[in-house]
Amino acid sequence: MRKIERQMNKAIAQRKSWKLDNTRVEYDSKKSISQVYLHNNKIAEIGENFVTVFHCGWKTNVTKSRLNAILRMNGKGNEGIYQKDFVWFISYDDKVEEFNSPVTLM
């Protein structure tokens, strides 16, 4: 995991807003959720009992890396996003499907 992703996950865990380079976390205390942005595109929402991930049409290695870092720290541990033959897939709850965002995991 990249240093920026460790810092991003730390901000999510501490329920704090944070920003570095092209990545930012905004914590909404009224809704009790963290929203993660990459290049000003919301790529994730993390709440107490859910994680919602988005690719916003930007299927890049950086987007995939950020989303996988979020899923590793905030998911159940078996989720992941990968690419095969230029198609993105998400695996969760013992199933695999094409990643057409958004996807909410409980």
Key descriptive features of the protein:
24% helix, alpha+beta, 106 residues, six-stranded antiparallel beta sheet
A few lines on this structure:
The protein has 106 residues and is of the alpha+beta class. It is built from 2 helices and 9 strands.
User: Into which percent range does the helicity of residues fall?
Assistant: 10-25%
What's the number of domains? 1
- The whole-angstrom Rg is 13 Å
Q: State the helix count.
A: 2
What string gives the helices and strands in order?
Answer: HEEEEEHEEEE
Q: What is the topology, as strand order, of the major beta sheet?
A: 1-2-3-4-5-9
Overall mean confidence score, pLDDT: 94
Find the count of extended strands (DSSP E, 2+ residues): 9
Strand fraction: 35-45%
Envelope shape: globular
Q: For the terminal residues, how far apart are their CA atoms?
A: 23 Å
How would you sum up the major sheet?
A: 6 strands, antiparallel
Structural class: alpha+beta
Low-confidence stretches: none
Would you mind describing this structure in some detail?
With 106 residues, this protein is of the alpha+beta class. It has one domain. Helices cover 24% and strands 40% of the residues. It is built from 2 helices and 9 strands, in the order αβββββαββββ. The strands form 2 sheets. It has a 6-stranded antiparallel beta sheet with strand order 1-2-3-4-5-9, with helices on one face. A 3-stranded antiparallel beta sheet has the order 6-7-8. A hairpin with a 4-residue loop joins strand 2 (23-28) and strand 3. Helix 1 (3-13) crosses helix 2 (61-74). The chain is globular and about 35 Å long. The two termini are 23 Å apart.
